[in-house]
Design a protein that fits this description.
Elements: E1 4-7, E2 10-13, E3 18-24, H1 27-31, E4 34-39, E5 46-51, E6 57-59, E7 67-72, E8 77-82, E9 91-97, E10 100-101, E11 105-110
Parallel strand pairs: 2-11
Antiparallel strand pairs: 1-3, 3-8, 4-5, 4-9, 5-6, 7-8, 9-10, 9-11
């Protein structure tokens, strides 16, 4: 069974940092394009960042310059480094790849 398992969420003050991890149960997932999405309370899920199989990265304008997506194929893991966090970054963060979704990890940024 294919699984994506996120971790690394938590409570942080504005201006702080967190690093999210997405561990994949199959190596082919991290050889595919992988993405992070987030869903704030009462809002629709939105795309945050993508890393292609070739390593090209793209970011939503709201996180550009603050978040970095990366992958460690040897560990079958994709990361999202989040710096200069803002209260509006609060939400549940989901990993997505090859049609599979993780269960999400919660991020709360206090002002």
């Amino acid at each position: 069974q294919v699984q994506l398992v996120e971790s690394g969420g938590g409570l942080v003050q504005a201006g702080g940092s967190l690093r999210l991890s997405c561990a994949a149960s199959r190596s082919f997932l991290t050889r595919s394009a992988m993405a992070w999405y987030r869903q704030a309370p009462g809002k629709q899920r939105e795309w945050v960042a993508t890393i292609t199989s070739g390593g090209t990265t793209n970011y939503a304008d709201s996180v550009k310059g603050r978040f970095t997506i990366s992958r460690d194929s040897a560990k079958n893991t994709v990361y999202l480094q989040m710096n200069s966090l803002k209260p509006e970054d609060t939400g549940v963060y989901y990993c997505f790849g090859a049609t599979y979704w993780g269960q999400g990890t919660s991020v709360t940024v206090s002002s």
